[in-house]
Amino acid sequence: xxxxxxxxxxGVFSPDDPERYRDLINGLYNSDWFMVAADxxxxxxxxxxxxxxxxxxxxxxxxxxxxxxxxxxxSSDRTIRQYAKxxxxxxx
Length: 92
Prior knowledge:
By secondary structure, the chain is mainly alpha-helical. The chain folds into two domains: about 1-55, no CATH class; about 65-90, no CATH class. Helices cover about 65% and strands about 0% of the residues. The protein has five helices and no strands. It has helices spanning about 1-10, 20-30, 40-55, 55-70, 75-90. The model has no long low-confidence stretch (mean pLDDT about 90).
């Protein structure tokens, strides 16, 4: 990631306008709210695991089915009811 950021920062991808991506680079270095740069190694490791599981179809299918089965708690109806009760203090 550091090499890619350095290349972008150097203007290699925008020789006609070397400052074109200055705001992007400044954002990564100075206000990376989503921790893109800080968490990149963990992201890359997780992506390698995803790639390995994808190549093993039975494991991929089993994980996908479990994921769908467990996602019910995150429904918008449940969230609105909880917000109404705990945050907005209105009947739901």
